[in-house]
Specification:
It is a single chain. The protein has 153 residues and is α+β, with helices and mostly antiparallel strands. The protein has a domain at 45-150: Beta Barrel (Lipocalin). The chain is 23% helix and 29% strand. It is built from 3 helices and 8 strands; from the N terminus they run αβαββββαβββ. An 8-stranded antiparallel sheet has the order 5-4-3-2-1-8-7-6, with helices on one face. A hairpin with a 4-residue loop joins strand 2 and strand 3 (78-82). The chain starts with 11 loop residues before the first helix and ends with a strand.
Length: 153
């Protein structure tokens, strides 16, 4: 673009550079945040309930269910819960120091069986902790909501 003497150059160049700089700065922040503690190591996988606050797990009754009651964390940010009959998927995030967030549960069937309240544990949790093959869900006050053992397969 040619500018005659005494005319001001258009400001759009600075605007484009400003937007480009903002996008680059945002990308750097996201990369650095994800590098340091954006996930609890080892949370991905399938987890079997060992104890749930306010609920007694009865292996004899749950053995009659059509599927095993599990919680599964997938690396794509999807969490699946099964109560032994019904399955529901939920988007999740695990941040620094195990901060746990989730989206709204997706659709699910409503098949009756001896249901294990895995979905309730997930919805109450505000933090998760993995210690070897043990996953603990904690509420906002740091009280244990559920404890799970890593399941095979």
């Amino acid at each position: 673009m040619h500018v005659e003497e005494g005319e001001r150059a258009p400001r759009y160049r600075w605007w484009v550079l400003g937007i480009g700089g903002a996008v680059l700065a945002t990308a750097v922040v996201v990369v650095l945040w994800n590098r340091d503690g954006a996930s609890v190591p080892g949370v991905e996988g399938r987890w079997r309930p060992e104890s749930i606050a306010g609920y007694t797990i009865d292996p004899a009754r749950t053995a009659a269910n059509p599927r095993e009651p599990l919680v599964e964390f997938r690396p794509d940010g999807t969490l699946t819960t099964s109560d032994g009959c019904n399955v529901v998927e939920i988007p999740y995030t695990v941040g620094e120091q195990g901060a746990f967030g989730h989206g709204a549960p997706g659709p699910q069937t409503d098949i009756g069986c001896w249901a294990v309240p895995n979905l309730g544990v997930v919805l109450k949790a505000k933090r998760v902790d993995v210690d070897g093959d043990v996953l603990t869900f904690l509420d906002g006050a740091g009280v244990e909501v559920g404890r799970y053992a890593r399941a095979g397969g």
